């Protein structure tokens, strides 16, 4: 299915809230949906369609074309390279023009805080800070200027492959939520100043992510990863934790396990084969790691699908 098929589907049975033709929509995390709108010509789209969802927030980045973010009687023109957040309750809506290309993440804060709390806290997502952004007062519209990480993550989501990167997309959405929670903390005056070496740390962290996701069958060690990133293990660990919000090993393990969870949906693959595909040669170690991350053993997870 192309990005611009007039189809709206969800990873789970929960109905997708967008109702958006000319888009691809999937629930990537409990209470979070990802819409990708590609370059192919499409009709003008207004979100939401149908009954207006309660407490739903749209976080979007425009790569090409324009879209209009409406709050009340005011419309904000969103141009290429700009990102924003908008509450869709009340009179909030987003008009995607025919030349629009970008990503939209729809968030239901109530479902998110309930079903996904443990996953978010593991990745240092400040739920209070996130809530202040998603439920903030005023008009419900916020330009995300000065928050380049939000745009960076949304672009990475646009460039990802749904077929091969299910776990990757879930982790990127969690990264996006973490960055939004940082915005909330900053607004409350509790965010620490950024370090002088932030740009270099971002380069190291993003390079490390690319290497770790490149070949899951052959796990990479921290020393080898540091050499590939042209830095020391100590700097690698510091940079990754500063930029991504969790230790590098925690992120790597979680990515591998989330990818394994996606692969388990294919019942023709044995659990041992899935373990090997994500770099676990010992099935018992894989089962232990999977249960610690997902709350169920691989066989229990497959049975619940």
Can you describe this structure?
The protein contains twelve helices and ten strands. Helices cover 43% and strands 17% of the residues. It has three domains: 24-187, Sandwich (Jelly Rolls), CATH 2.60.120; 198-245; 252-304, Arc Repressor Mutant, subunit A. A hairpin with a 2-residue loop joins strand 5 (67-71) and strand 6 (74-78). Strands 1-2-9-4-7-10 form a six-stranded antiparallel beta sheet. By secondary structure, it is of the alpha+beta class. It has helices spanning 109-115, 117-122, 127-134, 148-158, 166-187, 198-214, 222-228, 233-244, 248-263, 271-277, 283-294, 298-304; strands spanning 24-29, 32-37, 45-47, 57-64, 67-71, 74-78, 83-87, 93-96, 101-107, 141-143.
Core attributes:
Jelly Rolls; disordered N terminus; alpha+beta; 305 residues; Arc Repressor Mutant, subunit A
Write the layout of secondary structure elements.
Layout: E1 24-29, E2 32-37, E3 45-47, E4 57-64, E5 67-71, E6 74-78, E7 83-87, E8 93-96, E9 101-107, H1 109-115, H2 117-122, H3 127-134, E10 141-143, H4 148-158, H5 166-187, H6 198-214, H7 222-228, H8 233-244, H9 248-263, H10 271-277, H11 283-294, H12 298-304
Radius of gyration: 19 Å
Q: Which range best describes the helical content: under 10%, 10-25%, 25-40%, 40-55%, 55-70% or over 70%? A: 40-55%
Number of domains: 3
Shape: globular
As residue ranges, the low-confidence spans are: 1-14, 190-196
β-strand number? 10
Mean pLDDT: 77
**SSE string, helix = H, strand = E?**
EEEEEEEEEHHHEHHHHHHHHH
CATH topology of the largest domain: Jelly Rolls
If helices are DSSP runs of H or I spanning 4 or more residues, what is the number of helices? 12
Secondary structure class reads alpha+beta
Which architecture of the largest domain does the CATH hierarchy give at level 2?
Sandwich
At the first level of CATH, what is the class of the largest domain? Mainly Beta
Instruction: Characterize the largest beta sheet: strand count, sense, and whether it forms a barrel.
Output: 6 strands, antiparallel
* Portion in beta strands: 15-25%
Distance between the termini: 22 Å
**Relevant CATH superfamily of the largest domain:** Jelly Rolls
Lateral strand order in the biggest sheet = 1-2-9-4-7-10
